[in-house]
Amino acid sequence: MRIAILGSRGIPNNHGGFEQFAEYFSVYLASNNHDVYVYNSHDHAYQDKEFKNVNIVHCYDPESKLGASGQFIYDLNCILDSRKRNFDVILQLGYTSNSIWYWLLPKKPVIITNMDGMEWKRSKYSPKVRKFLKYAEKLAVKSSDYLIADSIGIQDYIFKKYNRTSEFIAYGATVFKNPSTQVLSKYDVEANKYCVLIARLEPENNIATIVEGYHKSDTTHSLIIFGTLNDFGNKLQKKYCTDKRIRFVGANYNQEELNNLRYYSRYYFHGHSVGGTNPSLLEAMASNTLIIANNNIFNKSILGENAYYFDNAEDIFNVMNKDSLFAQKGAHAIKNSKKIEDIYNWSIINLAYEEYILKKIR
């Protein structure tokens, strides 16, 4: 099979969920003797033309100069290049900006699109942008031969909204089994005496809700917040700068460090409210932590009863002030780790994608 993966900024991952998936799945496919191509931004930190037997195609990406609108040009350049390469399959990761170029996609390959989350619900976007994203979602559904949903919630939404079936395949993770306290000194914390939040600092991830509830509580434990400090993050940091417990430390893509920080945390906050199976949630489940998650269908369909859910800042305040949930950490962690091994293991996810794609091109 000759397959192209479009829609990410490239591999190896130094950005987020789609990039992580693209790395793991492409390397898996290459190890099974498939001819795999992953499209990378021209200014990606990795500039070689091959990564672990995966072909890398760098295309011009002006996002650093134009902002988010540059993604449209990058996706156009990737699609135009794909017309030259005689692929059997094009796997598109998301639809945000590439869907408007659907009419330029090559005719021969089967087009399979991972529909990601409901991007049009993200509050960071203006009403006009959200309207466009809803239109882009419709275009992606219409122009794709097959659709993949990474959560049951997204699968149900696609069927109810567009009367289209989609294949449910989640993201993957690997159970973390070799913890070390060494990284704790880097952040000046002790095991089980700090909390962690890892997310893009955007309103729909409930960062403000979590921080507000934490700030009002009497806890002495630190809250370490990982995420690139954008405008929204800078405003929050400035608002709570006098609270030394709350620490905005920027982004960190060192998975070993993050796994250890999750593992030894008292509570792990997951505020994501838009989208499907969020990779950081699976990584938390794989890292022996006690998860405090936003109360929505996407999180609950994965965590079930093995987490505590919050709706507002008062819930966060109660978690920290009462501090009575910590005793449940071991029981929840064991069950969540088993879910990773039995359902969300990367080996299982990669095989499911491969088998599904091969079935659709035969």
List the helices and strands and how they pair.
Blueprint: E1 2-6, H1 17-31, E2 35-41, E3 50-51, E4 54-59, H2 63-66, H3 70-82, E5 89-93, E6 110-114, H4 127-143, E7 146-149, H5 152-162, E8 167-168, E9 194-198, H6 207-216, E10 222-226, H7 231-239, E11 246-250, H8 255-263, E12 267-270, H9 279-285, E13 291-294, H10 297-303, E14 308-310, H11 313-322, H12 329-342, H13 346-361
Parallel strand pairs: 1-2, 1-5, 2-4, 5-6, 6-7, 7-8, 9-10, 9-12, 10-11, 12-13, 13-14
Antiparallel strand pairs: 3-4
Helix pairs in contact: 1-13, 6-11
Question: In words, what does this structure look like?
Answer:
This protein is about 40% helix and about 15% strand. The chain has 13 helices and 14 strands. The strands form two sheets. Strands 3-4-2-1-5-6-7-8 form an eight-stranded mixed beta sheet, with helices on both faces. It has a six-stranded parallel beta sheet with strand order 11-10-9-12-13-14, with helices on both faces. Helix 10 links the parallel strand 13 and strand 14 (about 310). The N and C termini lie close together (about 10 Å).
Largest sheet, if any? 8 strands, mixed
Tally of DSSP helical segments: 13
- Alpha-beta content class: alpha/beta
Average pLDDT score? 93
- The fraction of residues in strands falls at 15-25%
Radius of gyration: 20 Å
- By DSSP, the count of extended strands is 14
> Low-confidence segments, ≥5 residues, pLDDT <50?
none
Shape: globular
Instruction: State the separation between the terminal residues, measured CA to CA.
Output: 10 Å
